[in-house]
């Protein structure tokens, strides 16, 4: 896939937001939802619930899933309630780099998806570190990126605004050209309509 660089103008951001996610073009990326990283995450229950929904959607629609861990030896594996929903073909790739596109194994896995798989739907943690740097790397490589904001999380910052790191990470990604979305918006965008077997399968999880 040719590199198009970071999206920096208002028109570029508008054009990115106008392009809907398509099943045949989209892969799900799950970043570092790990046992020892999760406990201090602000609103972690929301993150877990929505990451699980995205993985269930990936199973229903046969979306490829790429998953990572950050230094699993020290920070633990992917939390069980997320890992149990990974497809059989998905094995989390361990990394030391914060941004997934700095990791050779991850870059190889993305290339293996093929040139037609050019949109990434991203969730995970932490929003302002590994998710942010992964999204910036994906944009630099020319991928369309949608971030499920309510399936991302960060540790709280001192003071009254516990969501500051989360919010600043999302703002930076939007400024760079990512589409900031929600889990439900992404799910319905990919399902497209209510008259399909896939919609009926997902409906049980959306009620």
Automatic annotation (TrEMBL):
Enumerate the InterPro entries for this protein. Answer: Isochorismatase-like_dom (IPR000868), Isochorismatase-like_sf (IPR036380), Isochorismatase_domain (IPR050993)
**Which segments constitute the Isochorismatase-like domain?**
26-184
Q: Does the keyword Hydrolase apply?
A: yes
| UniProt entry keywords in alphabetical sequence | Hydrolase
* GO MF entries: hydrolase activity
**Pfam families in alphabetical order:** Isochorismatase (PF00857)
- What is this protein identified as? Hydrolase
- UniProt organism field: Candidatus Korobacter versatilis
């Amino acid at each position: 896939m040719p590199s198009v660089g970071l999206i920096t103008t208002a028109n570029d951001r508008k054009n990115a937001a106008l392009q809907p996610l398509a099943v045949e073009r989209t892969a799900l990326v799950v970043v570092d939802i790990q046992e020892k990283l999760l406990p201090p995450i602000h609103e972690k229950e929301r993150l877990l619930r929505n990451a699980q929904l995205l993985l269930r959607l990936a199973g229903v629609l046969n979306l490829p899933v790429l998953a990572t861990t950050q230094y699993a030896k020290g920070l633990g594996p992917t939390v069980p309630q997320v890992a149990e929903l990974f497809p059989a073909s998905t094995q989390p790739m361990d990394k030391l780099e914060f941004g997934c596109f700095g990791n050779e194994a991850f870059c190889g896995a993305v290339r293996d998806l093929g040139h037609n798989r050019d949109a990434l739907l991203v969730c995970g943690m932490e929003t302002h570190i590994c998710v942010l740097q992964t999204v910036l790397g994906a944009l630099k490589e020319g991928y369309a990126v949608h971030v499920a904001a309510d399936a991302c999380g960060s540790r709280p910052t001192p003071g009254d605004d516990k969501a500051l790191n989360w919010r600043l990470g999302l703002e930076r990604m939007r400024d760079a050209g990512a589409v900031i979305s929600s889990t439900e918006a992404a799910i319905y965008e990919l399902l497209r309509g209510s008259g399909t077997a896939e919609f009926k399968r997902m409906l049980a999880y959306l009620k």
